[in-house]
Specification:
about 100 residues, about 30% helix, two-stranded antiparallel sheet, 2 helices, alpha+beta
């Protein structure tokens, strides 16, 4: 399982590095990836995330599970475009958090 998760994380990180994007955190089985933070990139964020998503779908289509080589991973991708706010919360174990706003 650790081998599988390491391969998946490494593939995701390699794809994110190709774009003006930032992997904010992993929540359960989902990665929260954003563009235009922490450094604003004007109007590039939507294009960057869309291209990253396409690369992610292509990469995971060929990704095989080491313990089940006849099966492939199923991927779900969602996109949000709009305002958000981010900041560091906590003092004992500070965490960079991203919050989406509806305004």
């Amino acid at each position: 399982m650790v081998e599988f998760l390491n391969a998946q994380y490494r593939m995701t990180d390699a794809i994110v590095e190709k774009y003006d994007a930032y992997k904010v955190e992993t929540i359960g089985d989902a990665d929260l990836i954003a563009s235009g933070i922490p450094t604003p990139n004007g109007t590039k964020h939507a294009t960057e995330i869309a291209k990253l998503s396409i690369d992610m779908m292509k990469a995971f289509t060929g990704f095989r599970l080491p313990h089940r080589p006849s099966e492939s991973l199923q991927v779900r991708i969602g996109l949000h475009s709009g305002h958000c706010m981010a900041g560091i919360v906590g003092t004992k174990i500070p965490k960079y958090c991203l919050y989406v706003t509806d305004e």
